[in-house]
Design goal:
alpha/beta; 5-stranded mixed beta sheet; single chain
């Protein structure tokens, strides 16, 4: 594990061993045709909305069409693999945590290695997950505090279950991290997606889950679930009324979902730098920032180095959980 982490960190620091050196010629003539943004999820999903939000202003900035192409499957890894293998210098992708960090750890047969085959461009947006429980279950706790609820969960042992949108997702890994930090033993039940997780929670089949903030807020306001804590280091502007798990007594807990833009490792550094500058400026612009916030994202809009650092940090945290719990993608 330490060797893998070292390789990943070294690779992210330089973006990729195969990335070409910047040249004035490259920056002067690029782009020479339309730019394609690959998305590994269907139209209307969060990564797709992020890509389409960026596409129009990026097209204006580049003076070329920017086309969003959806290639769903394998948790976004099909599209990520297309980006990793692209050689036309005009293909990039909007990707989620897993595609950019732990894809190869979860499944050694993944046809690309994020550390070696992808060049970070910009971290676009982040969001915590919200630890939630059915309202009727949480009311059985001796009081309304998170600490008391976790005590109830520990006493329940493996008679309680938690749901996630699949093996190896951040919701799954986040719950396993919480289990390791708190001593609860809830059993994992994977579902096809968050709608099925919520249905199971409301039906009493599961007692816990980590939900995206928008979904958690809707269910909380309807009185169907109780929001217990967010997984970010501090409170989130997306759900400011919910305390962080750290604030509530779970030490050093920080794990978020996020999306970023990356290209193939062979993308010339001059192109990476130009895209990083433009995309980060677009993401932080007031109009786009507001659109992304409405989609449930806290805007980051970082440099390529900023995304590389986030990839390193998440690889370390999630990689340890994967190794300790023996998690493998199905």
């Amino acid at each position: 594990m330490h060797r893998l982490a070292f390789v990943f960190i070294a690779a992210c620091t330089v973006f990729s061993a195969g990335a070409a050196e910047p040249t004035s010629k490259t920056s002067a003539v690029w782009p020479t045709k339309s730019l394609k943004i690959m998305v590994g999820f269907p139209a209307g999903t969060s990564p797709d909305l992020v890509a389409r939000t960026l596409a129009e202003p990026l097209s204006k900035a580049l003076g070329q069409p920017v086309i969003v192409e959806n290639k769903p499957g394998a948790g976004g890894n099909i599209a990520a693999d297309i980006v990793a293998k692209a050689t036309d210098q005009h293909t990039i992708g909007v990707m989620i945590n897993g595609n950019l960090t732990i894809a190869k750890l979860l499944n050694p047969k993944t046809p690309f290695d994020p550390a070696k085959d992808l060049a970070p461009i910009s971290l676009i947006g982040t969001a915590p997950l919200v630890l939630a429980a059915p309202a009727h279950t949480s009311s059985n706790a001796p009081s309304q505090t998170l600490a008391d609820f976790l005590t109830t969960a520990r006493l329940a042992g493996n008679t309680w279950s938690y749901g996630s949108p699949g093996v190896g997702t951040v919701g799954h890994i986040g719950m396993e991290l919480l289990k390791s930090r708190t001593g609860i033993s809830a059993v994992h039940v994977p579902y096809p997606g968050y709608p099925q997780v919520v249905t199971a929670m409301l039906g009493g089949q599961i007692q816990l889950s980590m939900l995206p903030p928008g979904l958690a807020t809707i269910q909380s306001r309807a009185g169907k679930v109780r929001t217990l804590g967010v997984t970010s280091a501090g409170r989130s502007s997306l759900v400011p009324e919910v305390p962080s798990l750290t604030e509530a007594g779970v030490r050093d807990f920080q794990l978020e979902i996020w999306n970023g833009v990356a290209g193939p490792a062979t993308l010339p550094r001059a192109v990476v730098d130009r895209l990083s500058t433009l995309i980060s400026e677009i993401a932080r612009s007031p109009e786009v920032r507001q659109k992304l916030f409405q989609q449930g994202w806290q805007v980051a809009g970082t440099s390529a180095e900023g995304l590389a650092k986030r990839m390193q940090a998440d690889y370390g945290v999630m990689g340890r959980v994967i190794a300790q719990q023996g998690i493998k993608a199905e």
